[in-house]
Amino acid sequence: MIAKSLKGRSAAMDPGIWSKLPPELLELILSFLPLKTLLNLRSTCKHFKSLVFSPSFISKYSSASLFSSFFLLSHPQCYSNFPLYDTTRGAWRKLALPLSFLPPSAAQFNLLSSCNGLFCFSLPNSSSFLVCNLLAKSSRPIQFPFFPFAFEMLTLVSTPHGYKIFLLCSKFSSNYAFVYDSKVHSWRQFDGFQPLLADNFHQEGASFNGSLYFATPEPFSVVCFDLENGKWENLDTEMPRELTFVRLVSNTDEGKLYMVGGIGRNGISRSMKLWEMGDGGNWVEVERLPELMCRKFMSVCYHNYEHVYCFWHQGMICVCCHTWPEILYCKVSRRTWHWIPKCPSIPDKWSCGFRWFSFVPDLYTLA
């Protein structure tokens, strides 16, 4: 009947009908639009612009839409854009993510950290950082605490009221920790931790219960830094035996802390295991990397574990190597291990500088 009634009519929508559509029904219809179309709607009228950013619509849109999530690859030789691997569809995206909206001062930049749809770049030419939402094309420059400023282990952390940036500065005889809070737009300085926390500055801190957790070099231990009061604490927990390297990663949605570590002797890993922090503060073994996959991973990193780093992405613990263009990941719910294939657009001659990030697009996270 509907088809017959529409036969012969103009393809244009009748304003008389659509203007009388109940607001809640209109919101529901719009919530199923593709993200690109939704973004374009913002410029059509003031009503759509305010609607897209309204709390009720955000709730409907986030529950109705199936966003893709991505692994984003940064490399010194893919400077102007970043290849994306769609983890929802299991394929590389043909279109790389453009950065044409960045300010002129971002002509030279380094991608350092990602969290909750935001990315943090360093802009050496302007002595600042740049936090931006690539999807919403919004950004905020943040000046270094002072200049020249040498920093390590920068970590971008999402908070209920925005975000924080943690980093260590070892310019002085005793290092310091700096924390930027987007709520007050200012830096705070705290004491650092001696000795240095890790032998791998590709590894970020693991956000867990309001603190950042780090592994120390041998003898391996775990320390945490309270982001609110700036206090350091050594965890009184027994570490597994025969560790050759340790990396920490957290699932902030479920409040879980994991540890990835190599097991072996004389600094040579013969296996790799995954542990979860138990209720009593002890490490509970979750999974072991299959032998053949372990052999491959140890061969590609040449037992130089300072190149190994880990991060959490949508139910996966990702283990990467700075010198290798693939990702090894464990799907925690299934306790299975897999490889993400090499990006087909990457030349074989690229041998070092691979840095992977979790990218979960979020239109409403403010930079």
TrEMBL record:
Stored SUPFAM superfamilies: F-box domain (SSF81383), Galactose oxidase, central domain (SSF50965)
Domain (F-box) ranges: 15-61
List the Gene3D superfamilies hit by this protein, alphabetically. 1.20.1280.50, Kelch-type beta propeller
Tell me, what's a Pfam family for it?
Answer: FBA_1
Q: What is this protein called?
A: F-box domain-containing protein
* Species: Gossypium mustelinum (Cotton)
